[in-house]
Fold:
Amino acid sequence: MRAPAALADPVRREILVLLHARPRNVSEITGHFDVSRPAVSRHLRVLREAGLVVAEDRGRERVYRLETAPLVELRQWLEQFSNRWEQRFDALETEVHRTRRERRRQAQSTDEAKEKPA
Structure:
C-alpha cells in the first residue's frame, strides 16, 4: 500500500481533490498551484506510481484521472481503528458531561453557602 506515502504531501492531496471533480491535463492542474509545471509533474508521477491517478494520452496532451481503488483499500485498512476512536470519543464525551455536572453542583453549593447567614 503506497497510497499513504503519496498522500503525505498537501499538494498531492489537493491534486486528488481536483481530479475528483473531473479528469484534467497537466496545464489545468498546474494552474491551481504556485509551483512549477515540473514540480506538478513530479507530484503526478508519485500519485501515478501509487496507483492513485491514471494518465491517458489524448492527442498531444496527457489527461489524468483519479483512481479510487487504492483509496478504498486505505479506507478499509483505517476502519480497523475507527471503532477504537469512536469508543474513546464516547468515553471522552461522558467524562466531559460528568465534569460539567460536578462543576455545576460545586458552584451551586458555593452559592448556597454564601447565601446562608452565619
Notes: The longest strand covers residues 53-58. Residues 80-118 form one domain. The beta strands are 24-25, 53-58, 61-66. The chain has a mean pLDDT of 89.
